[in-house]
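Weekly structure sync, notes
Attendees: PL, DS, HV (note-taker this week)

Item 1: Peptidase S1 domain-containing protein
DS walked through the input record. Source organism listed as Anopheles culicifacies. Sequence as pasted into the shared doc:
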Amino acid sequence: MFCAGKRDGVGACNGDSGGGMFFNYDGTWYIRGLVSFTKPREDAHICDTKEYTAFTDVAKYLKWIEQHMRGPVGQQNVAENYNNLKIGLLPKSTCGTNPLSIRLGEYDRSTITDCAEVDGQRVCSPPVQTLEIESVIRHKDYNSMFHLNNIALIRLRERADTSRSNIKPICLPVTNELRNQKSTHYTLTAWNRDILPGRDDYVLQRSLRDLVELKVCQRLYMNHHFNVTADQLCVKQQHGPNCTLPMGGAPLQLVQQVQEQSRYVLYGVVSHGPIQCRNTGPDISLNIVRFVDWILENIQE
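Item 1 (cont.): predicted structure, written out as tokens:
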């Protein structure tokens, strides 16, 4: 057995026995420990999360596991340094895969292929790309309560095919001219949460959103005890029959001159906002201009 944890009040407790401790090596997940027990509190028969958790060391039981494997499951090619041929019975080709992935080029989430009638002919877009995530770099000062520094970089295992017409990169405001632009509106592209519970809009929508000045936005959210900072952008919510509730991650963009060409530039990423149309608060987005330097410092080849 071995002990692990931070003794910070967060850890395994009653009912967590058998839970796994995992580690990632070369893109594959392995299990190293199984929750066994945590020292109980002195005044109650429940765990003390400020104590270490004891784990069963799986590595110490590999021979026992090998002895009880049965049936040819998984690949048979075993590495040369493996002494026991029964390790070949373990599904090494499929175990521990990372299930997280992203989809690129999506438009209508209710269909497999996006098609439309154009001049009397049926025209379909290229298929979407589903790519696995290799790693994620999250901002070290992310604050989940106030959605501050709500940004991360995702590295894909394979390059996205941006030669397709439905998948193109967007520009970042890296120059001083782009950083200092003072627009009063942005184009929002988003899937929207429907005003009826349990229903979502499946087709990507575009709308023009007016900027809400920072001081005005701070005042509107003051009654909700929510802190809005200069690292965020506020855009006016559409009310009435045109009310929409954009899903998180939606881009706020502008068409700007980049290298003497008109291109889309990313200025915001929707973080949160009203959950009902009758709420009067604006939608709040991450202000990309304030995080361009962080992006440049953390991107990798």
